[in-house]
Amino acid sequence: MNAEQHLDSYDSLATACKALSHPARLAILKTLADRGSCICGEIVAVMPLSQATVSQHLKVLKDAGLIRGETDGPKSCYSIDRDEMRTLGDRISKLFGALENCCQR
């Protein structure tokens, strides 16, 4: 793998980590994990944020591939993309495993 391919392989990981870097987005993920799926209004009801702010956070999570959103008329229903979350967990574990091995030398 050349240097450019090596950096490209971390692009989606960095995007996902950036999406996880905000406390409101972590709270939204926890809400979705607890409920299975929610419409935006249900998330707004449990968050101390405006509907527009929650929608923006949902967009960041969706763009990072961490959640799925389906529109049914005026309502959007969101759920965690379980396969993507498993993949993300595996990738983070591998990265931190490599970093840990480096530090033990």
Structure description:
- Helix content is 68%, strand content 13%.
- It contains six helices and three strands.
- Helix 4 crosses helix 5.
- The longest helix is centred in the last third of the chain and has 22 residues, at 82-103.
- The two termini are 25 Å apart.
Largest sheet: 3 strands, antiparallel
Rg from C-alpha positions? 16 Å
- Strand percentage: 5-15%
Cα(first) to Cα(last) distance is: 25 Å
For the largest beta sheet, what order do the strands appear in spatially? 1-3-2
Shape: elongated
SS content category: alpha+beta
Number of strands: 3
Elements, N to C (H/E): HHHEHHEEH
Estimated helix fraction: 55-70%
Low-pLDDT ranges: none
Question: Secondary-structure blueprint of this entry?
Answer:
Elements: H1 3-9, H2 11-19, H3 23-35, E1 38-39, H4 40-46, H5 51-63, E2 67-72, E3 75-80, H6 82-103
Antiparallel strand pairs: 1-3, 2-3
Helix pairs in contact: 4-5
In short:
With 105 residues, this protein is of the alpha+beta class. It has six helices and three strands. It has a three-stranded antiparallel sheet with strand order 1-3-2.
Keywords:
105 residues, three-stranded antiparallel sheet, 6 helices
